[in-house]
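Cross-posting from the modeling subforum.

Setting up a comparison between two proteins and wanted a second pair of eyes on the formatting. Protein 1 (sequence, then structure tokens):
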Amino acid sequence: MCGIAGVTSRGDSSALDGMVERMHHRGPDGRGIELDQESGVGLGMCRLAILDPIHGQQPMALEEEALRIVFNGEIYNSPQLRTTLEMGGCRFTTRNSDTEVLLHLYAEKGEDMLADLNGMFAFVIHDRRRGILFGARDRMGIKPLYYADRDGRFAFASELKSLLLLSWVGRDIDFESLYHYLSLQFVPAPSTILQDVKKIPAGHSFTYDLGNEALTVRRFWSLPVSPDDDLPPGEWEQALRTKVAACVRRWTLSDVPIACSLSGGLDSSGIVGALCDGGYDELATYTVGFRESAEDETCRARAVAEKWGTDHHEVVLSPDVLLDDLETMVWHLDEPYGGGLPSWYIYREVGRTHKVVLTGTGGDELFGNYAKWRIYERPGLFRTREILRRAGESGSLREFARAVSCPHGYYYHRYASDVLKDRVMFGDGGHGVRERTEALLERRWVEAGMSNPRDTVACIDFQLQLPEEFLAMTDKFSMAHSVEARTPLLDHELVELVFRMPAAVRTSARDPKQWMRAIVRDLVPPELLDAPKKGFVLPLLSWTRGELRPMVESLLGPERLDAQGIFSNRVWKGIVRPHISRDVNRTQQVWTLLMFQLWCKVFKVL
């Protein structure tokens, strides 16, 4: 696990050391920087040593093939790939480095190597003979990869903040990204909050031609919805149980001890059960609770830990502790983010003793995400693929637009509807935004090209919210504490198996967790099987009217809004002032705006 960075211009090589240093938290165990004198390409990394700690230093080279690589992540089938490569005549110099496996695999297969990889990854290879950089981000988007491409210069990094050290990377806001953020509470790929920085989307690779200074980005994986109607439900259950056990075990590949975050829910509890049932010894588990809800959270987690005899750690915090770390969180998040924050403290506690932690992220998205698709199955709302295609071409999907704008719509537009943004937040013109958020979601819906809403909503989840909100937050918060967070429920073999299930079998409105319950029923205490989903809800209403009110009035007051020139003064008059005066409840809008303004303050933008 690392932070990686690279530049293509000798003029930028002096900044490379600073780019790597700015990500020191991602890899405190070592660092390496190399400049290729002939091409001017510089590669750098900071390393969190997990596999082959002694021999896995980067940048790593295959000199006879004129290849160099920097790599962030883990390839969980690297032992099997290494064996196959050795049988084909490859000679390895490291003991078990997955980085060296990537180099040899690229030398054998070129860009077709990606189909062979099982894991989480963001890597870049400098191929001197072809005069290119080749890189990729894993199928689910677990690991990030930012880049800047401007005026014949190209640079990349694991974190946006590292690219800001380059003199030619500006800090001008991408107003379309801001427009989407205000509705989604995250910025969808491939854009970022800044005009000069982009991100490689999940399941995409890129090639940068050093001679032509040309970048090409390609998709190499998308959610494969391919229903198998022949397998009876009972056989699906056994297939899923077998696959989950295999994936969880595969994702323990490590030369250092691992831990598990344990929320007391089915997903994380099932992972702990699968590991211990499979013979994994001396497992450490971590639970962080908050005083208002700690009893349910910590008691359930404790029951799982007692069942399997794990080395269990509990921390109970006051919610107000988050306020002390808010600006630090914003710095590590890289982009404005209005979602959940408590997992910061799980990774902080894990980081005191461990480098690797397994989490249950992705379990909800596999099986319908608590039936988010239900609204689209109302009579007259969902249309067939052909009607959707025609409607998308004509720019008129009124029923869809109404659905996503309602309080229970697809991406929770209660944060800010397009109408609210156009009329109140931005005022006239909206800074020239070309594609509204509703139009973005319409386009993704049409492009999915699927025949039922259960599959379509899943497809959009795997493109947007899962990689760009949940996994982005998981990566940034874990790496802030020098911890590698692993998500075995997002092993692509498990994902592909799940989406072979017909939609009506895979998902249930009455019991959204039916399959996860079936998979883990022998692995968790009985009281967990029917326990309602619990999660800690930030006390945003009281914060924005209480402890954070001075910050709200400072960052969202008329003077600040006028000086910035981004938002209309109607933000203060129509949203913020009525909220803090207790005339109306605008908690989500105020919080989302505040987190953007706090990002501007921390990153010294506007």
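Protein 2 (same layout):
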Amino acid sequence: MRVFAKSYFFGILVLSLIFKFFLFGCDNGTTSGDGGDGTFTITDIPPEYNGYYAYFVAWDFDIDIVGCQSINMATQTVTLSRISNGKVNMPVWRINESSNTATGYSGNGIFYHNTVEIYSTGTLPDAVRPLESIHFDYITFTTGSATKSFNDGAPNSGGIGSGGW
């Protein structure tokens, strides 16, 4: 099951990137920069999610970013950020598929197709299905950081315990 979960997680990531390149094959110049200490903060998270873990994924025309505590591309392990007091701060990482690396993001730009997922366990791919999945149409990052209210997102699932997606 663990091998399946790892393959499943990275298979979904690859498929989303292929979809992105198919739809948005060129750079529109809205994003730039990496190598920094950007943070994505979600506020106003309902109290029932305190103690759970969050993961963020987004892309623009030429940049893919994720929000999590840490990411190890070599072992394909993602450590998620813990939700506390209705809030979570996730370091933002720029993913470079060609070199199989993740570096801190510090750029400016608008990202499309943003999803925040909440999991019961602190690592991926251990947690295959999210408890909750929230979509944000547009998120503007300045020097690698952005903040959104949970209430600004549109749910992608039926809520806690629904099995996600």
